[in-house]
């Protein structure tokens, strides 16, 4: 799967989700009208295109480097969450669950959470996809916790499929943002996942700062690009 062709296909799929989002917003009468909403949507499109384009370029040139694939996966997870939420809103709120692929949209609507899981990996593994031996166990623990968060999100989505309205008025999974009732078990796991994400991001930034201070030549220039990209985001 790690091939230039796969990177191109995934990149094209990611870019195609942009017009899909606006079409769905029009169908549910939620196209941005205020200047703040328009700015929000514009920033989101710029964010998604930057991650996708850079990810495709890196994955095509260095298919064995996980950075390119992680960048594409992050953009896809955000857009899948956006489109899944909008379509679920359209289906269950306006059409009473009669549209095709409604359950699929429910399963996808929580995938924006996966972007938070991926972000620390992009920072820590930059630029060559490798970490020192001291990071192996922290990385394994983080990946195990990330897998639990992803699995828990999908379990909430599967459980919500049994409801007449599995999504709220915004298209978000019932019980995902504020888990309670049948989804109460997910609350501590979700909080632990977000805390771990923040800690790992801060640790990764500190790790790269230390590497920058010791680096020279090409590696130093690569880390400058990382810093510039982070500041721009």
Task: Quickly describe the structure.
This protein is mainly alpha-helical and 233 residues long.
Please provide a written account of the structure.
This protein has 8 helices and no strands. The chain has 233 residues and is mainly α.
Key features of this structure:
single chain; 233 residues
What count of helical segments does DSSP give? 8
SSE pattern: HHHHHHHH
Radius of gyration: 19 Å
Helix content: over 70%
What is the makeup of the main sheet?
Answer: none
SSE diagram, text form:
Layout: H1 4-27, H2 35-61, H3 66-94, H4 102-108, H5 112-125, H6 136-160, H7 186-214, H8 217-232
């Amino acid at each position: 799967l790690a091939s230039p062709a796969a990177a191109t296909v995934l990149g094209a799929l990611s870019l195609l989700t942009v017009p899909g989002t606006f079409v769905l917003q029009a169908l549910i009468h939620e196209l941005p009208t205020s200047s703040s909403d328009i700015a929000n949507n514009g920033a989101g499109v710029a964010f998604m295109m930057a991650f996708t384009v850079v990810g495709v370029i890196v994955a095509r040139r260095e298919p064995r480097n996980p950075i390119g694939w992680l960048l594409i996966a992050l953009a896809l997870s955000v857009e899948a969450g956006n489109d899944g939420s909008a379509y679920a809103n359209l289906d269950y709120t306006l059409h009473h669950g009669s549209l095709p692929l409604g359950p699929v949209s429910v399963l996808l609507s929580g995938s924006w959470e996966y972007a938070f899981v991926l972000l620390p990996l992009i920072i820590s593994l930059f630029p060559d996809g490798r970490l020192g031996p001291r990071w192996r166990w922290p990385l394994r623990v983080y990946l195990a916790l990330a897998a639990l968060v992803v699995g828990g999100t999908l379990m909430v989505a599967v459980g919500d499929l049994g409801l007449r309205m599995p999504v709220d008025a915004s298209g978000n999974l019932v019980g995902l943002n504020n888990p309670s009732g049948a989804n109460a078990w997910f609350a501590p796991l979700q909080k632990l996942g977000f805390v771990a994400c923040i800690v790992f991001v801060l640790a990764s930034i500190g790790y790269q700062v230390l590497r920058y201070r010791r680096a020279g030549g090409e590696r130093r220039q690569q880390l400058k690009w990382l810093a510039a990209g982070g500041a721009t985001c």
